[in-house]
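Hi L.,

You mentioned the student needs an example of a multi-chain input paired with its predicted structure. This one should do, with 228 residues in total across all chains.
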Amino acid sequence: EAQVTQNPRYLITVTGKKLTVTCSQNMNHEYMSWYRQDPGLGLRQIYYSMNVEVTDKGDVPEGYKVSRKEKRNFPLILESPSPNQTSLYFCASSSRVQPYNEQFFGPGTRLTVL
Amino acid sequence: AQSVTQLGSHVSVSEGALVLLRCNYSSSVPPYLFWYVQYPNQGLQLLLKYTTGATLVKGINGFEAEFKKSETSFHLTKPSAHMSDAAEYFCAVRGNSGYSTLTFGKGTMLLVSP
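Structure written out for the whole complex:
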């Protein structure tokens, strides 16, 4: 089954404790992206990757890091989480070769930073 | 640069009434346009998309949208609302290059009353 998986689905942590949210897709997609969703603000892009070893900042990259060492994986790293990073996070992937194709979204990770 | 404006953060309709969710976009290149739906506590699911060709696009669950280039609009409609349509709806735009990213509107919450 074609899918995007994220782990963990729920996470409660404390300020300053490094964490990683994993994202994996099995569709051989070149393009992967991370979004955060906050009430009234919709989805805002954090980082995206056009292919392996190619990443770029989205609209709200501050406080986040990413890496793309393999085509299927695109982890999101919070080196020193702060309460304003409490949010719902989505990973997505799509074909870069066919940009008219939809983005497939993961189930989301709800992060709370105390 | 590209952007999406969704008019109305909340839209309320009665069951059986017409649903109209408005979306206007700006794009410096011919766009691909998408509508996604998010049911409570779930990820995003594609409703429909416009790429090229026919400007009236039909999607799942009886929804359709019309691409109007002159008005830079892509409004979503459904002739008769059902209680199960209650969800948040997001309009999104992507340029026609493989290097274009997907930009979302802030979302419209559809409330359906009996």
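You could point out the following to them. The two ends of chain A are 36 Å apart (CA to CA). Chain A has no helices and eleven strands.

Best wishes,
N.
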